[in-house]
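User: Working on a comparison across species. This one is ATPase from Halioglobus maricola. Can you predict its structure so I can line it up against the others?
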Amino acid sequence: MSETTSGGSCCHSDVDADTHAHSHAEAAADSCCETPARRDYFFWVCLLVVGIAYPLGAMNQHDHDSVVGVFTGGVYELFNAMWWGIALGIIFVGLLSRIPREMVMGVLGRDAGVRGLFRATLAGVFLDLCSHGILAVGMKLYERGASTGQVMAFLLASPWNSFSLTLILFGLIGVGWTLLFILLSLVIGVITGLIFDGLTRKGTLPSNPWREELGEERPLGEMWAEMRQSMSLSATGTADILREGFVGSRVVIRWSLFGLILAGLIRALVPEDAFATWFGATFAGLWLTLLATTIIEVCSEGSTPIAADLMNRAQAPGNAFTFLMAGVATDYTEVMSIKDTTKSWKIALFLPLITVPQVMVIGFVLNQFA
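Assistant: Here's the predicted structure for ATPase from Halioglobus maricola:
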């Protein structure tokens, strides 16, 4: 990991001047607007429940006869699928906290038009993280000055469009359907971003206050050269990056743990074969899929095989796409993380309001080819 050479500290170089000029302001904002770690009872209760359920699930993986056994087994299985995404998200968030705000926006583009949204959408596609890891990175991008539309486009394109999950989908539903799903998700991401930025310009939604902290725009190559010269490897810098990444990702981890608990409860109480019998390629099946993906909290690794089952067993490609995309738009972990980061319920709730109608229309059309 990287650390600046000045004074043995991680970030005292000239290129990071902007980051440090506002570090105290950012810390103050966190301390004022977010529950301090020691008083975050919700986080600690969720961590305690998962900490008890996980080892029980590991010891009784084949106990499918009791509610407790299914719950703990579900927590064990889902945590094993999502922990690496959270871990990578912490690392990326820590690294992003050391990159100057101007450089982040130089990559994404400062303009809130189609070009900037397209860059953010492609960044979401090519960043190989699951939904829980990508959410932490998306929230840090907002703090780095990305427009609300860019953040939404990034989040919508990324959770199941990673290279690893794309390869898995190739094998599960075929290359053609996978590429079509990816293309449609890109379209939804750009359209949603345009709508968000338009509502922000009209004043319907609050603008990103961090954009006001951006300095004068500079060439990206010049900023990269300066940053590269000022960085060096050290154990202290690596530890600081991990610590700052954990602090910056705590809001996401909190809701991910809660989602893990809820998903385990649903597994224990809802029959698994209901997906194949209830969610066919019908109008009612499409709405039931929307209801299920809204209630059930699964990470991208968990949603991919379920979507494949909807495609192959229920013969409902539209339901499969809806489960993947609407699951992102209605995910309460994502909604609550957006609310906590932006300090705006309107921004958080406008995500499903804007995205779900697009997903449902596309899902209905896709089901006509079942």
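For your comparison, note: The chain has one domain: 11-367.

User: Helpful, thanks.
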